[in-house]
Specification:
single chain; mainly alpha; Growth Hormone, Chain: A; two-stranded parallel sheet; transport; MFS_trans_sf; Major facilitator superfamily (MFS) profile domain-containing protein; membrane; MFS_dom
Length: about 575
């Protein structure tokens, strides 16, 4: 880890500052404005939960409204998994086994993974388009595509057409998975971004809750409309969301990266309470964003996918991938087939759907709990110990799976799966979106989140393949014993998170750039003092030199000139 030097060239233990590359990349910065922006960020860090919402509620409302796309996606993606226990769908696309209709495991995995493949295409589109065209245009394009693809599902006549529909709908779903997270990380100040990013998990939990309720109502339908009606309900989302995004502000960080400083200043003012910013503070805040963008470029982050694997961004990409992989492999996946599992244990179809509604409603409560945890606890402990809580619950599920299966054990398993779902939405589910929005360099945020989500959906393909085979009576028939498999997977996730995932709470994007550039170990992010010479007032327009360590010794950098080692 590099050690910072004071203005006399003496080392200051426990401090990190700008690296030589970062200084060279930002020598044309307006120091007075950056210092003013730094003071604005410092003030925002001190704002309480009530204060931050009072001062910045406008930006918060825009982010929450746009995140409704995730309620849509949570509904849509849960429909296909729950269809496998819906009688109308089973009779239309299933086979008769021992006098009972059932969708074969190969088609369960096939339909789920076809959707996932579509999401991969959507993620690629977002990674390429969001930085080029902005969030608003990319979002509206995805919604228009969503409207058209729903037609294929509603009017599907056989499994082949249904496969095509699932792939087509997966494309816009993949687009919205990352658009909303990146926007939440950039539209509002530091103390609000965690809550807004965590809301993504509320969207998926709420969407699943709505979908289970719709499917519960579909039990009373006969014929094809028993499964067509849940698909048709998807049309309720796109048009209102297009209208919302049309009037929403663009990300000020994206505008700065595009060189549109005046537009960025207008958005900064628009998303805060009138009068919040004093004279010239808006310009200072925008200049601080430009300063952060320069630090990104110094760390080989110019905006391409390949930049994610260069320099210090490689470590950030590893963390991004690890956090997303844990979303699939922590053990929460056992709850995806709660309805089918309860039916296999002898519960009625109606009861199993009612039970799933209860479980999904707790998802919403769990995200509310996560907001409390985010206020008083860092991201790292929530994530690390959240994994361990699910490991313990899966161990209990595995133990019950080894006992004689009765109505009592089935109810116990249902309760434990509900607790797994609740725990996931208290910690891993929402906090994931907070972390993945904060970890990347600003110029790579859209691409990095898209890449991480790509890794996530690739993991989902494997998990979606394994899950039905573990549970299905016509395949491996592990039942609740599959909890032991998820115990092992969860322990691997715990080990990685403990060793490699840093704390990101309370740091500005510029401060995170400095921490990564100095290669600070994950467990020491909160134990070092960060000094940004361009922003903290140690350097002014009249200060001719800055002192920074290099391999050859202290380096004097004169403003407006290249670095010279002395």
């Amino acid at each position: 880890m590099d050690e910072e030097h004071d203005l006399k060239g003496q080392p200051v233990p426990g401090q990190v500052g700008l690296t030589q590359a970062q200084i060279d990349a930002d020598i044309d910065v307006d120091l007075d404005l950056v210092h003013l922006g730094y003071q604005v960020v410092a003030r925002q860090k001190e704002e309480s939960f009530a204060q931050v919402w009072k001062q910045h509620w406008r930006g918060g409302v825009w982010s929450l409204a746009i995140s409704m796309a995730l309620w849509m996606e949570g509904y849509d993606t849960n429909v296909i998994n729950s269809f496998f226990a819906l009688p109308a769908f089973e009779e239309r696309f299933g086979t008769l086994v021992n006098g009972k209709w059932s969708v074969p495991a190969k088609h369960q995995t096939g339909l789920s993974n076809t959707t996932t493949c579509g999401q991969v295409v959507g993620l690629l589109i977002t990674g390429l388009c969001q930085e080029r065209f902005g969030m608003r245009k990319t979002f509206i394009g995805g919604m228009i595509l969503m409207i058209g693809t729903i037609f294929i599902a509603v009017f599907a006549t056989d499994l082949s057409m249904l496969y095509g529909a699932e792939f087509a709908m997966g494309v816009p779903w993949g687009m919205f998975q990352t658009l909303t997270t990146a926007y939440a990380s950039e539209i509002c100040p530091i103390n609000m971004r965690g809550y807004l990013a965590a809301w993504a998990s509320m969207g998926w939990g709420g969407g699943r809750f709505i979908s289970t309720g719709v499917l519960r109502a579909a039990l009373t339908y006969t014929g094809d409309w028993g499964w067509k009606m849940p698909y048709a309900v998807q049309w309720m989302w796109p048009v209102p969301l297009i209208v919302i995004v049309f009037f929403a502000p663009e990300s000020p960080w994206w505008l700065v990266r595009q060189g549109r400083m005046e537009d960025a200043k207008a958005v900064i003012k628009r998303t805060a309470r009138p009068g919040y910013y004093a004279d010239n503070e808006v310009a200072g805040y925008a200049e601080y964003m430009r300063h952060t963008d320069a630090l990104d470029r110094a760390d080989r982050a110019k905006g391409s996918f390949i930049d994610m694997f260069r320099g210090t961004n490689l470590r950030r990409t590893e963390i991004q991938m690890g956090v997303w992989v844990i979303q699939q492999w922590n053990g929460n996946a056992i709850t995806n087939l709660t309805t089918e599992f309860l039916q296999a244990a002898g519960m009625s179809t109606t009861f199993s759907f009612d039970f799933t509604i209860i479980s999904n409603s707790l998802s919403i409560v769990g995200v509310a709990v996560s907001w409390v945890l985010l206020r008083y606890t860092g991201r790292r402990p929530i994530y690390v110990w959240g994994i361990m809580s699910i490991v313990i619950l899966n161990m209990l599920i595995g133990i019950l799976g080894c006992l004689k299966q009765t109505t009592q054990t089935a109810m116990g398993l249902g309760v434990l799966m509900t607790l797994v779902n609740f725990s996931f939405h208290c910690n891993l589910g929402p906090v994931c979106y907070t972390i993945v929005g904060e970890i990347p360099a600003s110029r790579l945020r859209a691409q990095s989140i898209a890449w991480g989500r790509f890794v996530y959906v690739c993991s989902a393909i494997v998990v979606n393949f394994l899950n039905p085979y573990m549970i299905s009576t016509t395949a491996w028939n592990w039942g609740a014993k599959s909890g032991w498999f998820w115990v092992g997977a969860g322990l691997v996730c715990f080990a990685w998170a403990y060793l490699r995932m840093p704390e990101t709470a309370g740091f500005s994007f510029a401060e995170l750039d400095i921490l990564f550039a100095n290669k600070v170990p994950a467990r020491k992010f909160t134990k070092v003092e960060i000094r940004d010479q361009f922003a903290d007032g140690l350097v002014s327009e009249q200060t001719p030199y800055i002192v920074q360590e290099s391999k050859e010794g202290p380096t004097h950098v004169e403003r407006g000139q290249a670095a010279v080692t002395v």
